[in-house]
Amino acid sequence: MSEKDVPGIRKYDAPAGGWGALRATAKAISDQMAAPEAAITLFRTNKPEGFDCPGCAWPDRKHTSTFQFCENGAKAVTWEATKKRVTPEFFAANTVSSLLEMTDFQLEDQGRLTHPLAYNPEKDIYEAVEWDEALSRIGQILREQPGPNMVEFYTSGRASNEAAFLYQIFAREYGTNNFPDCSNMCHEATSVGLPSSIGIGKGTVSLDDFDACELIISIGHNPGTNHPRMMGTLHEVARRGAPIIVLNPLRERALERFADPQDPLEMATLGATEIASSYLQPRIGGDAAALKGIMKALLEMEAAEGRDAGILDRAFIEEHTRGFEALAEDLQAASWDGIVSESGLLEDDLRKVAQAYAKSNATIITYGMGITQHSTGTRNVQQIANLLLLRGNFGKPGAGICPLRGHSNVQGDRSVGITEKPSVEMIDRIEKRFGFRAPGEHGHDAVAAMQAIIEGRSTVLICLGGNLAVALPDGDACFAGMRSLEMSVHVATKLNRSHLLVCKNTFILPCLGRTELDIQATGPQAVTVEDSMSMVHASRGKLKPASEQLRSEPAIVAGIASATLPSSRVQWMEMVADYDLIREAIEAVFPDFSDYNARIRIPGGFRLPLPPTERIWRTASGKAEFLRFPGLAEDPKPVDNAVLRLATIRSHDQYNTTIYSLDDRYRGVFGRRDVVFMNETDMSERGIQQGDRIRIRTALDNEDDRVLENVIAVSYQISRGSVATYYPEGNCLIPLSYIDPASGTPSYKSVPVHISLA
């Protein structure tokens, strides 16, 4: 079947960005908002007196620039600031059972929630409820639970620092460290892996470093969709001639060529800039072998040219690191045949990457969930750190490690205490500031929380945003677990599928969005967020709230806490009246936030300390650690030669579980999501043609009943042995237990599968 015969599948030859991005932005505005209001709102995005984009966590350079948003940022803003409303009348006319028949896109597209709601099981509908009644009932049920560890406190990365801090103080005074978090499903491997390597679980670069770098190595991420404002930075780097080497199983348009919508000449001439100077496509699960191959090539270059050639930074290694000899021994023992087989890349190509790296005096390595969402995600991250350490690429301009976070404040939530593993120092400071002793035992991450819910060991789930049941693998088990709860509480701006997995007591509490004016007793309030480069800055919504019934996230958290803990030692309502008091408390518990209130009033905010940028290593040894990756394989040996490796991916019109439309423009998919991207040779070997209906079956031991049916094959430039389908549709193929044991991150990016004609 030819490509043009498949409905909704056609070539898209334009560059990323450009006029296609402007048209998509205009459509998002026309679908959701009135044009004049949209223009004013978007103008305030990422401004000192405006609000932080509720999309990705890429930082802003010019805080006075007229335009500081991208296509997907505009979608995120207009999606939140939509004129559409979901009122009590809507729920009176639609049972929960009928709403479950809607797609995820249709559910969120209904608009903004306007009233607090409680589920009525007799009528199978949500009904409006007064705030005081909802909070009282929630508090009573929480007090009735047999123990605090039977309650799970989930946090989305869109929560502000202020809301997240109050949330973790509430849960710890309640008596638990159960903090499933969206980070557990994306960059937890970074948070766990990097502290052992360099002493901190964050990236070490700033935007200024991208001006000074001589090379970027980009691994396992698609910036044009998942962090589009990064494209402006990559555009600048490419235009000044610095090489950008890409390693990614799929050819992604934004990594090939990009037209900057803010470049008048490029737009006027229909031009574009080539982004990748070299584009390698490892097979899914081949990143660790590729990284070991590059490092092995460096060692062999030094052996051939001598230590004085400067291939490795021997002075840095000797002064600042530990474990080099063991790493070198491991790399020397790895065979090139094995590296080529596991990585899916040619030896010559890996040697060329090593040569380019050896020539660069300042290198940045960027990476995303193509590295972290594997069963060896933590060790994968550590191999990137190893590669950077070999040439001293920490603590100098233009160099460092750059994990690409997703949500706009997922990193900030961690910085203010959202962790299931609190340190003794943190517990001590909480006690000093608030007068209660928080529990010390480790709590649940996202997978452990859902496993406890499924097994009946947890009976209550409170969600500060998010769509947890849809985001996690194995929807059937997660959905059943949600329905078995004693109570679920969802703080949200829009309706999603997790809200419809109702249990004995289910509440939806509507909150203000990032774009909306937040007025408390002392006047308009600002919240703060942290971007992926550790910059903390203020965000001030300006829009009239979607409903007079909306409350801020800090106010909702404080309301639940007050209703649950009548003898609490925390001055909940005083802090909500003036968010400066929340920030003073954050500063007392986390000294890195010193002079918090003063510094967020400076345009652009301030940067949290990053010791590796000063070549200070807060590891147990006091040095950066080279950490070995055992063998070459990230995944278990396949049961047969027909096994392919599947990655779940986001479409261009999608942000995490939020789907803005059914298009995936850059990959040539329009109006549908029932597709699987396949290598043309893999299709031919299986007798599959483009457009054929196929069946995908999981090829893990005792998991072959996991099947994704009735999807179509689409020929795509993806590495041999690799396939990709959309998230969350492909989550049914992934067992909840298929995780990186070190970080608990689900292996969304490397699932062994069999594919056959349906």
Describe the structure.
With about 750 residues, the chain is an alpha/beta fold. It has 31 helices and 31 strands. It is globular, with a radius of gyration of 25 Å.
Protein topology:
Layout: E1 16-17, H1 18-32, H2 35-43, H3 71-80, E2 85-86, H4 88-93, H5 96-99, H6 104-109, E3 112-113, E4 117-120, E5 125-128, H7 131-144, E6 151-155, H8 161-174, H9 188-198, H10 207-212, E7 215-219, H11 223-226, H12 230-239, E8 244-247, H13 253-256, E9 257-259, H14 264-268, E10 273-274, E11 278-280, H15 287-305, H16 314-320, E12 321-322, H17 324-333, H18 336-343, H19 347-359, E13 363-367, H20 369-372, H21 377-390, E14 400-403, H22 410-415, H23 424-434, H24 446-454, E15 460-464, H25 468-471, H26 475-483, E16 487-492, E17 505-510, E18 519-520, E19 523-524, E20 527-530, E21 535-539, H27 553-564, H28 572-577, H29 579-589, H30 596-599, E22 606-607, E23 624-625, E24 644-649, E25 654-655, E26 658-659, E27 675-678, H31 680-685, E28 693-698, E29 707-715, E30 722-726, E31 751-757
Helix pairs in contact: 1-3, 7-27, 8-27, 9-21, 15-18, 15-19, 15-21, 24-26
